[in-house]
Specification:
It is built from 19 helices and 24 strands. The protein is α/β, with parallel strands linked by helices. The model has no long low-confidence stretch (mean pLDDT about 95). Bound molecules: 5-amino-5-deoxy-1-O-phosphono-D-mannitol (M6R).
């Protein structure tokens, strides 16, 4: 994981690096560090364990010189504990004039380290990354050219890496490479940037180029060159970042998560914009990589994703199957390719990922492509690897999501799932077009309903705050409410570090009901009673079963459900909508509940322990 930023140009390099790291800190926050080269040609490095604030304090105490070139890193530890010594940058060689930052894992580092140790190199950290710093420094001593030295070493590294290097003896250039880890170039006027994603530099420029697999970047203030690992020049394709820099700042909110929960009406509206007409028909131009013939021939859809994105996939499954009658299975990306799945050319793999850099999901999609499937990505980040490697992309327009816990990206992913379902259904034409348009029109109303939910979150906030001492919370749901229950439990584990589990309510009597004892809090997602096939009566029975055994119930129910109040201690009402669309609304109080409970426990909601936003290791 780790966040990487590089800058060369006339601005205050330190400010650019620290600003970039602040926006990338979601990628890891075990330690942070920077190296700069002063105009007089001296490399200086500061690094510190802990969050970025510790590094900033260190620099205040030991200031860095004004500089026109530098690199910065925020770490999610893999090899070596989160200490000052293991923090990046790492210096290479006896000269200690070369500085390197790395995101990823160098899988053959032990073998390379043994080679270096045998040659007399001593190490000052336990990281795999330091190996690359010494190898490049050694090559530099031979050739006197940083690009030549760098190119000779990256081909020897196995695994995943984005690496940036600067050297005091060639102070005008940053050399970088990527394999299986993200790297994006930001283009400026007389200045250029590098970042793990566009958030690193969007404050300064919206012109960007994403770096391909196994490519080397040679970055100077006035030039950008990209070569493949085997030295061939790479044609650069520029894109414009559509994120607003202010969207990646807290803007007066107590946390990024609080802000991002409130951003959801916009995230849903922006994801629908230009794709859903006022008559309810869907227009998905981004799917041009898939022909109508491809869709008509589809035998199966496999959704691959991890964590919250997988729950978005679970919800999409209900809608896609119901509307298009195409069988859908949802697979955790990391399980998918290791069980020899059945994939044919008539399989569509839908990969859902906010970051588009989740290694498990990238590996799953590569596997699917190798086995002949078409891949459609649902992704929130322009220029991300997943988007580049897929046949078609539906971008979720949630804007930058900074808090580690996913909120607005989820509701945007669910929205994209519904759009996909309606689009597939319109091509397969199993459900009458008029019915699809009716559903589309209801989907158009969702941003307004999300706003209503957001306006009424006080109750969820109060309940979360009151339950700060809870040791365990269970979540129950049925049909589309089941993945919502799973997501509610994930949010609580992730943010409040307490035992939380989501169950299909119908499964309760097959085991989990044994967990219920006096006072056990249980959150129940209650389906709409208006649906003819509604599971409402069954869920009410489930509530009675657990209350009879002492559970304290918080129900999430739709407005107008008059029965539920007599079966629950607390009811949080959300607006009525088409029952299959309800997850966009019912999940929001659960986000706020987890945020409030975590806040009441005094925890860091934006950067929960042990986690990183973007999981770029397998
Ligand atoms: O970037 P992705 O959507 O691929 O990330 C997938 C999961 O790592 C992510 O959703 C994770 O579960 C969230 N932190 C949950 O809030």
């Amino acid at each position: 994981m780790c966040g990487i930023v590089g800058y060369v140009g006339p601005k205050s390099t330190l400010e650019v690096l620290i600003g970039g790291l602040r926006r990338l800190e979601y990628r890891g926050y075990d330690s942070a560090g920077v190296s700069v080269i002063s105009p007089s040609g001296h490399l200086e490095t500061r690094k510190k364990a802990g969050k970025l604030g510790n590094l900033v304090a260190e620099i205040e105490e030991h200031p860095l010189p004004v500089a026109n070139i530098g690199i910065g890193h925020t770490r999610w530890a893999t090899h070596g504990a989160p200490t000052d010594g293991n923090a990046h940058p790492h210096l290479g060689g006896k000269r200690q004039k070369l500085s390197l930052i790395h995101n990823g894992i160098i899988e053959n580092f032990a073998e390379l380290k043994a080679e270096l140790v045998a040659a007399g190199t001593s190490f000052s950290s336990e990281t795999d990354s330091e190996v690359a710093a010494h190898l490049i420094a050694r090559e530099f001593e031979k050739s006197g050219d940083l690009v030549t030295a760098f190119s000779a070493v990256v081909v020897r590294l196995h695994g995943a890496f984005t690496i940036l290097v600067i050297d005091e003896d060639q102070p005008d250039v940053i050399v970088a490479a990527r394999r299986n880890a993200p790297l994006v170039i930001g283009l400026g006027d007389g200045e250029n940037f590098l970042g793990s994603d566009v958030a690193a530099f969007v404050e300064h420029t919206k012109r960007a180029i994403s770096v391909g697999q196994d490519e080397i970047v040679i970055l100077r203030a006035n030039s950008v060159e990209v070569r493949s690992f085997d030295g061939k020049p790479v044609q650069l394709e520029e894109f414009t970042v559509d994120w607003d820099a202010s969207a990646a700042s807290k803007g007066g909110w107590s946390s990024f998560m609080a802000k991002e929960i409130a951003d959801q009406p916009q995230a849903v509206a922006d994801t629908l914009m230009g794709r859903l007409n006022s008559d309810g028909s869907v227009h998905l131009s981004e799917t041009d990589g898939l022909s109508h013939e491809d869709i008509k021939n589809l035998e199966r859809i496999i959704i691959v994703a991890c964590g919250t994105a997988a729950y978005a996939g679970d919800i999409a499954k209900y809608a896609i199957e119901k509307w298009s009658r195409i069988p859908v299975q949802v697979e955790l990306s990391h399980e998918f390719r290791y069980r020899d799945p059945i994939i044919t050319k008539n399989t569509l793999v839908v990969a859902i990922s906010q970051s588009g850099e989740t290694m498990d999901t990238l590996m799953a999609t590569r596997y699917a492509k190798e086995h002949g499937a078409k891949v459609l990505a649902v992704c929130n980040t322009q220029g991300a690897t997943l988007a580049r490697e897929s046949d078609a992309v539906i971008y979720t327009h949630a804007g930058p999501e900074v808090a580690v816990a996913s909120t607005k990206a989820l509701t945007a992913q669910i929205t994209a799932g519904y759009l996909l379902g309606l689009w597939l259904a319109s091509i397969r034409a199993v459900v009458p077009a008029a019915e699809l348009k009716r559903l589309g029109k209801d989907l158009l109303k969702m941003p307004g309903r999300v706003s209503q939910v957001i306006a009424g979150l006080k109750q969820a906030e109060r309940l979360g705050t009151e339950m700060a001492d809870a040791k365990s919370v269970l979540f129950l749901g049925r049909n589309v409410g089941f993945p919502v229950a799973m997501e509610g439990a994930l949010k609580l584990k992730e943010l409040a570090y307490i035992h939380a589990e989501g169950f299909a309510a119908g499964e309760l009597k097959h085991g989990p009901i044994a967990l219920i004892e006096e006072g056990q809090p249980v959150v129940v997602i209650v389906p709409s009673p208006r649906d003819e096939e509604s599971l409402h009566p069954k869920v009410i029975s489930n509530i009675q079963e657990i209350r009879a055994r002492g559970a304290k119930v918080i129900a999430i129910a739709e407005e107008g459900d008059d029965q539920v109040a007599s079966y629950a201690e607390n009811v949080i009402y959300v607006p009525q909508c088409e029952p299959l669309l309800a997850p966009i609304l019912t999940v929001i109080p659960l986000q706020t509940f987890a945020l409030a409970l975590s806040t009441a426990k005094g925890l860091d909601v934006d950067q929960p322990r042990n986690l990183a936003k973007s999981v770029t290791v397998e």
